Amino acid sequence: MKSPSFSYVRPSQLSEVLSLLQAQGDRVRLLAGGQTLLTTLNMRLSEPELLMDLQSVPDLKGITLTDQHLRIGAMVTHDEVAQSALVAQHAPLLTDAAPHIAHQAIRNLGTFGGSIAYGDPAAEWPACLLALNGVVVAVSARGTRRIAAADFFTGLYSTALQVDELIVACEIPTVSAQLWTSFQELARRHGDYAVVGLAAAARAHSTALQEVRLAWIGAGDQPLRSTATEQVLESAPLSEPLIAKAIACLKTELAPRADMTHSIPAKLHLSAVLLQRALNGLLASTSISQMSRNL
Amino acid sequence: MNAPDHQMLMRALKDNVAEAPIPHEAPPLSGPLKDAHHIGQSIPRPNIERLTEGRGQFIDDMELPRMAHIVYWRSPVAHARIVKIEREAARSMPGVLAVLDGHDMAQVCQPWVGTLTHLAGIKSAPQYPMAMHKASWQGEPVVAVVAKTRAQAEDALQHIQVEWEDLPAALDMNTALLPQTPVIHPELGDNLCFTRSLDTGGVDEAFAQADVVAQATFDFGRHTGVTLEPRCQIADFNPASKQLTVYHSQQAPHMMQDLYSRQFQLPESSIRVICKDVGGSFGIKVHAYPDDFATVAAAVLLKRPVKFVADRLESFVSDIHAREHRIKGRIAAKKNGEILAFEIDDVTGIGPFSMFPRTSGIEGNQVVNLTGGPYKHKAYRAKLNVVFLNKTPTCQYRGVGHPIACAVTEGLVDLAAAQLGMDPLEMRRLNVIPDDAYPATGASGIKLEVLSHQACLRKIEAMMDYPALRAEQAALRAKGVYRGIGFATLIELTNPSAAFYGVGGARISSQDGASIRLDPLGGIVVMVSVGEQGQGSEAIFAQIAADAVGVAMSSVKLVTGDTDTTPYGGGTWASRGAGVGGEAVLQAGLALRNNILKVAEVILKRPGQELHIHKGGVLDAATGQELLTLTELGRIAYYRPDTLPAGFTPELMVTRHFAQKDFPFIFTNGVQASYVEVDTDTGFVKLLKHWAVEDCGRVVNPMLVDEQIRGAIVQGIGGALFEECLYDDNGQMLNGNMADYLVPMAGEMPDIEVAHIETPTRSSVLGAKGAGEAGTAGAPGAVVNAINDALRPLQAQVWSQPVTPEKILRALGRIGDAAG
Amino acid sequence: MSNALHVHITVNGQRQAQAVLPRTHLVDFLREDLGLKGSHLGCEHGVCGACTVKLDGKVVRGCLVLAVQADGREVQTIEGLSESGEIRDLQNAFIRHNALQCGYCTPGMLMAASELLETNPHAGREEVRQWMSGNYCRCTGYQAIVDAVCEVLDARLTAADKGALA
């Protein structure tokens, strides 16, 4: 369908963005990559008065590395994340997840910040940000806030962002390069939204796991972690019985919604399968490293 | 010194074919076609460079002066009484030219009823271009907004206020006939559109004698065509000339010409239907939609061109749906593997109206006719109930009943084979009608001219290296990897006679015509009543015409899809383009060749028997020496008739028609095989490979036929694994968009190997049968059988399409009441 | 009452100055304002790929880009790619393999394939399938399209090798 009418502005400075958001935040929709927003508009599901195009705002691009973190600008595209050597080195979970995001044409325009701001429980980046303990840098005319991923996603398509704020970047702790990470997704067709997906991270000292983060795609109303299951995995050395205990915990902890072709039991089952596969992989690698240390 | 009489020539050619031994190869063309070097060759299609350069001409590419755009307010609910329509707010929106309701349109357009007399007892209610008193399905058009741009029309649409009262809806085909279900059209008495029973007799005896009886309930999810170019048309009524021109993305322009004539009470001669490039059709675009008539009505009322392009969201609820069936099937067999009987009980849910003009009873009717089709058994019983529902109307969609009949038949064969411990390929070999047993009549009464099931089974076994696959399957099973092999033997009706529609009173032509004209410079123009929707009709007509006349293919121009300039005919449906249209082209070409020779005779003063036409020249038949180019012949014939004998007039434009009259249908046959791997943890299915052996008679262009088969197979896979129109409890479609309705994309599709057996039909000189739908007929059966073959060691089975991970996990007991 | 904006968009190498409503997406701009009908609409929700064009050299869904977003930027359509001759081998391969039937998906397919040829010249058959899986085709079943793209990948590598040896 054709989009309803709206006005359009393309600011060239972050200050313009912030003052417009402060003055008219509720009338304005931010246009980042537009891959979600324009779909919504073309289906006439939304009728914003004003679209503010962020493409010319200079402070929002770029992937940079500091001592503390990997900084991904809000307007960095999915493709730029996928191609980035810095990301591959310091946050390979993102590199693993990127090919699952839709298709190349979408990835060429869709943005990291846009995806985080939308907070779709079926999207890849929010789960990855949770798994990597990332931080959302939100700016308004009132100043800058850093919001931990764990606090950022608050409900169905709701985030902690205030109406006058925009995301300028996400920061991922550089220690993530030493984490074990695993990304898996089940989708009926390549590039579809996940039926379920898992972005997992842990710090493994032999079979002792710490900082376990299991972030789920398609398993709830928002991107979320199964914290009780994480604690099970931190409670004892990784083993097949511990994995079984974690799976059992997961099945009681997660409360996914059914989608159009998968019931709640199916979603729980598939989530358990993904966790099993991720942990089997981790167990195998810790056993190998254990073996090699014993030699 | 006359050229051989055309009639004698035709008889001679046909006799050659008739005398040949039962072939599984098309005999070489003979007589004037002995030098044919286009028919049978995989020549790339001419005239498609423009489609690779963005220079096609699709309907939406066209603009006419003062053209307006129409959008429809469609019922958002399944069943509602319309109380009041408030139009004023919409009318005053920018760019709006008119807001029309059903009453406005009923003033210029007659209602119609989707029934045909040869489906005994079929009933349906009268239908108008737009609903007036009540809306009967989510998506039924109720109000039309015409504006200068589509965007403006959509803006105004939001200001249409319709007050309605919800009515209880009939949404479940399994309960549609029960007394507690609301009757959609009380004047019809019940929700039964059409019912049929067939009983050969001896069925109960067969089941009583059987050593094995296998049964299952087969479910098929309603799905739809999803042509990438949506339905679209531009209706242009000139009030001064009273001429109606409709540019339409359609498969049957002459049918639409007739319908517009009758519904709008305009003389047939004042209506012209023009088809340009059609972006996919598959049967979706062969039906007459209420929107079609509504768009024309708007053009008539507004006296300016009106364009309608269905938006994708609207397509999902307004394009015809198909294939919503539940079939209880049984098979009886002896322990030596001989099939004794099939029995089916089929209920299918259509929309609230039988679709116009081909009826919504045909699909179920074909399920009855075709179940068990490849096999020798004599005993068969079938019961069919076609019931009205408050859902989108359904009608013929590629394959029309074949995919269902085949999946049921082939699923039952596999179940019986499994009970007997017999190899499924062996079971088929034992039971197919033998290749030397034709003509034959199937248990359902279908007349089969000549098929080649045995040859096809031999060929596929070799192609796929069946023993090696079974060995691989066994080895992987031992490691907990579950692969499956599934077969589907199929028959497919093609080249229909008037038995399909004409006898039922439908003004749908089962004959087609071709006019071929030699132009002054020696090229030919071929005008054919069968059109092009991408399958390559124009290409094969060019190949046939080039060989029939004796010119290079580069000298052939095709004209199709215009009721003013082509002969009268039926168009594209039921896989008839090559067999019927191609035959008309062949006969016209041979007749033109004859007339060219007559001109050459008088120019060269040589008897016609000594001459031959080849590659654009008239040759001495004995020596091969070129005596006269067609360019020179054309110059003389058109510009220098003064040099020709008195009383002689060149007739360098010829028209011939063809109707297949030997059989109700010319059946084809084939077999497909699917190799899959089922992930028993997730229920996901990976399609590893697919094979098809198809016998569609003489193959005019192997590459085009193979590509038709591949596309059709993938379309069938869609219904088998991915596609379903899903509804909530209120009858509203949940997944009417491209993200949630899953069409097959490249990533999940297998490579498909295709081979042919060629058993020509003797009902025509060309000997070509149809090929467009067989792929879709067999693919679901083969894939579902492969999945069940993979699951068999785990005592799980799924006979519900689409086969989703959910269904597989439940069958395996991994989820559900029994699961841990 | 129009809130049309004046934009300058370079389309197929030619700078176009037009007044355009903010809500007009890029493909409607190309088709209606510039008369370039080669880019098609199949869904307008970014899934089918029929609308694929290039923006600043990268493939995008033209239905999910506003014309105003393309102000000051470069757009290439199938018409432009054809004129330049840069995908002539791909177009010829499509014709030879019958990788198009109705032709409606074809401009989008060619656009998508052209980016693969540029960015991953060593792509194998499976990668080609995955890459092309963002473009819907109902007619072909995809195999001929994959065959055509693979053939061109091979031919270009062979030509590059020969060029390197020369």
Explained architecture:
The complex is a heterotrimer of chains A (295), B (820) and C (166). Chain A has 295 residues and is an alpha+beta fold. In chain A, 38% of the residues lie in helices and 25% in strands. Chain A contains twelve helices and 14 strands. Chain A has helices at residues 14-24, 37-42, 78-83, 85-90, 92-97, 104-107, 112-118, 124-131, 149-152, 227-234, 240-253, 264-294; strands at 7-9, 28-31, 50-53, 63-65, 69-73, 135-140, 143-148, 153-155, 158-159, 166-173, 180-186, 196-205, 208-217, 224-225. In chain A, the strands form four sheets. A five-stranded antiparallel β-sheet of chain A has the order 4-5-10-6-7. In chain A, strands 11-12-13-14 form a four-stranded antiparallel β-sheet. In chain A, helix 10 runs antiparallel to helix 11 and helix 11 packs antiparallel against helix 12 (264-294). Chain A is globular, with a radius of gyration of 20 Å. By secondary structure, chain B is of the alpha+beta class. Chain B has three domains: 3-57 and 511-658, Aldehyde Oxidoreductase, domain 4 (2-Layer Sandwich); 65-167 and 227-318, Alpha-Beta Complex (Aldehyde Oxidoreductase, domain 3); 321-499 and 662-819, Aldehyde Oxidoreductase, domain 4 (2-Layer Sandwich). Chain B is built from 20 helices and 31 strands. In chain B, a hairpin with a 4-residue loop joins strand 10 (232-238) and strand 11 (243-248). Chain B is globular, with a radius of gyration of 28 Å. In chain C, 42% of the residues lie in helices and 15% in strands. Chain C starts with a strand and ends with a helix. Chain C is α+β, with helices and mostly antiparallel strands. The longest helix of chain C is centred in the C-terminal third of the chain and has 23 residues, at 143-165. Chain C folds into two domains: 5-77, Roll (Ubiquitin-like (UB roll)); 85-165, [2Fe-2S]-binding domain (DNA polymerase, domain 1), CATH 1.10.150. Chain C has helices at residues 26-33, 78-84, 88-97, 106-119, 125-132, 143-165; strands at residues 5-11, 14-20, 52-55, 58-61, 74-76. In chain C, helix 3 crosses helix 6 and helix 5 (125-132) crosses helix 6 (143-165). At the B-C interface, helix 2 and helix 18 of B face helix 2, helix 3, helix 4, helix 5 and helix 6 of C.
